[in-house]
Specification:
alpha+beta, 4-stranded antiparallel β-sheet
Length: 100
């Protein structure tokens, strides 16, 4: 049986399937920078130690959805919290490895 794009029932059914996806939770994370150090250096870190990141002040941060790079943005302050203003949407996502 051929799919009929003019069938109102089929359109409503497809819309309800897509609508169900809107309730699926996703993990959104923002990476402000990265650093690579040796284990010995990691073990010597103490309170007050500064870990230098690979980003300069004012450079865009990376925004990931479920470990896929989707956008870049700028850090902003919202009330007393940090936020991100999206400045660029990435065309094809890049999957990163995370170990939580």
């Amino acid at each position: 049986m051929a799919k009929n794009d003019d069938d109102p029932f089929a359109r409503r059914h497809a819309a309800s399937e897509i609508g169900a996806a809107y309730d699926v939770p996703v993990r959104v994370s923002t990476v402000i920078g990265k650093s690579q150090i040796q284990v010995a250096q990691l073990m010597r870190l103490t309170r007050g130690a500064v870990l230098e990141l690979d980003r300069k002040v004012g450079e865009p941060v990376d925004i990931y959805v479920n470990n896929r790079l989707v956008a870049r943005g700028e850090l902003v302050v919202v009330d007393e919290n940090l936020g991100v203003t999206i400045t660029e949407v990435v065309k094809s996502g890049t999957i990163i490895e995370t170990h939580h």
